[in-house]
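Hi there. Long-time user, first ticket. I'm pasting a complex I've been working with (about 850 residues overall). I'd like to know whether the download I got is complete or cut off, because the file seemed smaller than I expected. Thanks.
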Amino acid sequence: MSSYFSVFRMRWKMELQYRGAVIGGVICQIFFGLILICLYRALYAGKPQTMPLDSVVTYVWLQQAFFRMLLSSDSELTDKIRTGAIAYDLCRPLHLYGYYYARIMAQKLLGSLLRAAPMLVFACLLPRGYGISAPVSVPAFLCAVLSLMSGLLCVCALENLTMGFTMRTLDARGMQALMNLLMMTLSGNVLPLTLFPDSWQRVITLLPYAQLLDSPIRLYTGRYAWTQASQIIFLQAVWLVILIALGLLLWRANQKRLVVQGG
Amino acid sequence: MAYIEANGLTKIFTVRKKREKGHLMREKQQITALDNVSFRVEEGELVGYIGPNGAGKSTTVKLLSGILTPSAGTACVNGLVPWENRKQHVRDIGVVFGQRSQLWWDVPIADSFALLRDIYRIPLSSYTRRLEELTDALQLESLLRTPLRQLSLGQRMRAELCGSLLHNPKLLFLDEPTIGLDAVSKLALRDFLRHENKENGTTILLTTHDMEDIAALCSRVMVLGHGKKLFDGALNDLLARYDTSRIVFVRYDGIVTLPSLPEQCTLEQDGDGYRIVYEPAQVPTSVLLSSLQAAGPIRELTAQAQSIDHLIAKMYREMDL
Amino acid sequence: MNTIKLYLHSMRMLLKSQLQYPASFIMQTLAQLVMEGGEFMAVILIVDRFDKLNQWMPGDLFFFFGIMSVTFYLTECFGRGVTGAFPGMVRTGQLDTLLIRPRGVLTQVLCSAIDPRRISCIAVGTAALVIGCQRSAVQWSLLKVLLLGESILCGTFLILGLFMIEAVFCIYSVKSVELVNALTYGGRSACEYPIDIFPRPLRFVFTVIAPFALVMHVPAAYILGKPLFGWPVWAAITTPAAGLVTFAVMYAVFCRAMRHYRSTGS
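Hi, the file is complete. Here it is re-exported in full:
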């Protein structure tokens, strides 16, 4: 168990080492957020929607703040797979799936917390109509945090599954580009899911991608009543079980194959 | 005027240190990679350039090939200042970095050469002639259609050499060209360099850690340490200074008691014989021999000098590098 | 002339080496197609929900998207050396091998990389342009065709120039490339939409600092028959030159920076 915690500790040290990159990244992300908000303001000026503008603005800020949770960018891991250095990890007395799950989680959680904090502070200071609005109620806020956490568990399982596929194809770039793209689009980063056609939303919100950020944000802005939270968390739990089961199966198969290849 | 003239070349790098706790700004640190180095090289010379890691050898090569600009000092190669007339200067030089390729990884080397022809604007007739000459000397004909990535290290180094000599440079910089090569490739490479130097009169500046390269090729050697030039002259003169001790291996018939030797000798067991290191200047060889004979009947005795690597290591130690 | 020949020769060779790995190439090209397709879909969905953006009709928005997409990915395809490969060349010392050749550094950097996968992005952009033209019923004339060509050409120079900021940072080993991304990728995302929908500070950024608006929006608006801010035709002809100016300025800065280049490694 302690080895999983040390993964978190190492990640935290690494993130702190690249403070310069974090500051640059935050400024860049804020800039992207401002651009999107200006765009939606202009669009709303022409034709207001049932979803209030403030909710869209809040949606954008939360998406930008937790942007790091979406991208799979552990190049060290993919390099390891490509060069075969992953063989070292096979020799360690660790459960591989669990070890990489912890790694992915550490990267997503710590990387985004460090960035989200200053960005959300900034977004609070902006004038009304540009800045983030407060959650609709305290219970809604708590439910949002809870579903963000279980959404994170889901997405880590999803990414670990992709990592398993990467181990099969060896060349990770195509696969990863595709996964990143699905993630960006279907989690609402490119365009808030709330602005997708209503009929599409019914399907997209059921997919695991929407669990990470879209569901928590909807709870936060009151688009979903907090009394619905149990349903959302149930859906997330179902996905979590499915994804982890698939991931475990795939990794076990891979491990057998790697052992065979190693001779 | 000499072909290369360097006067007081100095290069200082400013490195930003890691920020320490309590300090708001990062401190800057100045590292002198090259400290007031001067030398001259005549046309057609083959000069070896040695020194421990981090001595400033690569910095010198980079300055003379126009990649870097010095912090102080001047240099003139064939009448041009490398970092001011870069384009004109590099037309007449070739550089081989032992650990860095200048050819294209995934295409046949002939295609790489053709692109180099365009880059150097070599007329077709002289290009064809030169390519034939080089592929002959470097035995590359059969490899021309092979992509670089499929070549062995030795073949790759030959291809690199060919690439940097296509435009018939008057000056060739070699930065550790024999690193990682097997004995056969090494010998072939040395033969080729000697030939290129003799027949085409190419001036060659060779940086290496392999002392055998220097011994086999260079009449003149420069030693660099901590950015300063420490020696410049014939290799034999350099070695003579440090080549003061001899090693003797001796084996006796049957088991004998340990021979008693003069104090200044060191003695150690070596297999079923003994290994003795001594300095003839302090202990005359005849004295050593008679004390060895006193211990019993000698079956076998060999004497030899220290290897060049040992001498250089000793030199580095004494120069405090 | 010789430089162009060298560039074409290099491109031919790089293409050849990329096609050595066809499976990976096809996979990545497809990924790019889906990526840019996704961006385009976002615009289509926005149009579907909001009908229009200020005075800009759906066709106009597709046109703006298309011109940015084509320009940006043409630059990334043929200027890969500057837009993607340069930091690695500094880090690994590959730049040294360029400096020992009798050609300009920038020429050689441009000659050292190509990204043919972007062809699928360019295709999406072209499709957006065509659809935009049809839906907005653009009245084509020779002038407008030339204007479109001018805009795209100057746009590639503008984007190259902006990426050269990153290159200069690399030479001085400054690590804040994310800030430059705000101008380059941020510029792409913002200026997929016409400049006049943005508030004044953003307009300033994309007109004066990274003049996407001058290079693309002014001529594009003229082509669509709705001149931006009512500017006359000669404005549409002259403003794209801002891209060339940006490039020229950055080229001068780049050359100065190269003098401070400190080659790493032994």
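A couple of notes from our side: The longest strand of chain B covers residues 28-41. Residues 250 and 274 of chain B are 5 Å apart (CA to CA).
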